[in-house]
Amino acid sequence: MESHESTKEPTAYPEYFDIPRADEEGMPTVMSVVSGTATTETSTSMKRQQTVMDMLTGPQGKNAFDPSANKLKPSPASSTRLDASSSSGTIVTKGFGVERLDCIPFSMSGFQESMTDEQRDLLRLECESMGKSWLKLLRDEIKKPYFLSLKQFLWEEGLKGIHDTPLPLRVYPPPKDIYSWSNTPLGKVKVVIIGQDPHYGRGQANGLCFSVPLGVAIPPSLQNIYVEIKGEYPGFTPPEHGDLTAWAANGVLMLNTCLTVRANSPGSHYEKGWEKFTDKVVDVVDKYGGANLSSKLAQADTGLGRGVVFLAWGAWAPKRVAKLDKTKHLILTSTHPTPLSAYRGFLGNGHFKAANEWLERKYGSEGTVDWCTLN
């Protein structure tokens, strides 16, 4: 959980209450590099068996040793496939059962027409403020009973739409900022930073984990993040603010596990449904994160996710990404940047530079993140 500060009340940081846990001590740093070897070997073995069978039985009407039978075929490890019936190698819209991101249709009006009146009312905020590259993949999720129950709970808490939520706010962040993380287009995601729940003080939360709006004091956890970046990039000059929207514009998805919190009540919206929803967000990133990044690979590989970097700090965050394929993504873990645990593994972890080195190998120099520019 990030730190939180209020300009009118004594400073209180939920990280002091919640983050340091026994299982956090000595948490190792994990760095995984894409290989895809297991998938390739399994497929190759199957093709080898089929080739031997063809040699024994012989294809009807053809010589069993016809050179055309030995032509190189696309590896299933690649992100897309070629149309076997096309001599020109036309790219199809699906890659081994997963539809390409740019080929998934979405109509906002059609989506709204598909809802009941109650759903349309409860989901008005999502339709108004969630980034469309995310909404088209989460549209079925937000119509599920658990999410509608979550929205009903939030209505009872005083959170409705952008324009009809009564003041003063009783839930943070403001309605317009709850989905501000989704302003980073799905296909442009390079790095995911996992947080817990938003800052609970008035005016502190802006919908991006660890971030605060301009004019709000920099939380201690973010101060330690700046210290670590300075250690990895000596030319970095820490800004005098804690607004991380420049990272979001550069492909960093800053996702809290719980997207709302009751004012002055840390953890108050846990186990209401947000955890299940943000797990689905992580699943979507697993499939499509970075799908529209340029790559050293062939153009045929765009449209499907080829791996991103996950920064999971503390005891909480690694559990959210434990199911991900470590051969596809780079998953970096350490203790949390809170002052209570930063010295036990966060400071000196090298995560920001390690993330960029991995991204550059995979996507080229344009695939890296400028951690040092926060203007």
Automatic annotation (TrEMBL):
<keyword id="KW-0496">Mitochondrion</keyword>
<dbReference type="InterPro" id="IPR005122">
    <property type="entry name" value="Uracil-DNA_glycosylase-like"/>
</dbReference>
<feature type="region of interest" description="Disordered">
    <location>
        <begin position="57"/>
        <end position="86"/>
    </location>
</feature>
<keyword id="KW-0539">Nucleus</keyword>
<dbReference type="GO" id="GO:0097510">
    <property type="term" value="P:base-excision repair, AP site formation via deaminated base removal"/>
</dbReference>
<keyword id="KW-0378">Hydrolase</keyword>
<comment type="similarity">
    <text>Belongs to the uracil-DNA glycosylase (UDG) superfamily. UNG family.</text>
</comment>
<feature type="domain" description="Uracil-DNA glycosylase-like">
    <location>
        <begin position="182"/>
        <end position="359"/>
    </location>
</feature>
<feature type="compositionally biased region" description="Low complexity">
    <location>
        <begin position="75"/>
        <end position="86"/>
    </location>
</feature>
<dbReference type="InterPro" id="IPR002043">
    <property type="entry name" value="UDG_fam1"/>
</dbReference>
<keyword id="KW-0234">DNA repair</keyword>
<protein>
    <recommendedName>
        <fullName>Uracil-DNA glycosylase</fullName>
        <ecNumber>3.2.2.27</ecNumber>
    </recommendedName>
</protein>
<dbReference type="Pfam" id="PF03167">
    <property type="entry name" value="UDG"/>
</dbReference>
<dbReference type="InterPro" id="IPR036895">
    <property type="entry name" value="Uracil-DNA_glycosylase-like_sf"/>
</dbReference>
<comment type="function">
    <text>Excises uracil residues from the DNA which can arise as a result of misincorporation of dUMP residues by DNA polymerase or due to deamination of cytosine.</text>
</comment>
<feature type="active site" description="Proton acceptor">
    <location>
        <position position="197"/>
    </location>
</feature>
<keyword id="KW-0227">DNA damage</keyword>
<dbReference type="GO" id="GO:0005739">
    <property type="term" value="C:mitochondrion"/>
</dbReference>
<dbReference type="GO" id="GO:0004844">
    <property type="term" value="F:uracil DNA N-glycosylase activity"/>
</dbReference>
<dbReference type="GO" id="GO:0005634">
    <property type="term" value="C:nucleus"/>
</dbReference>
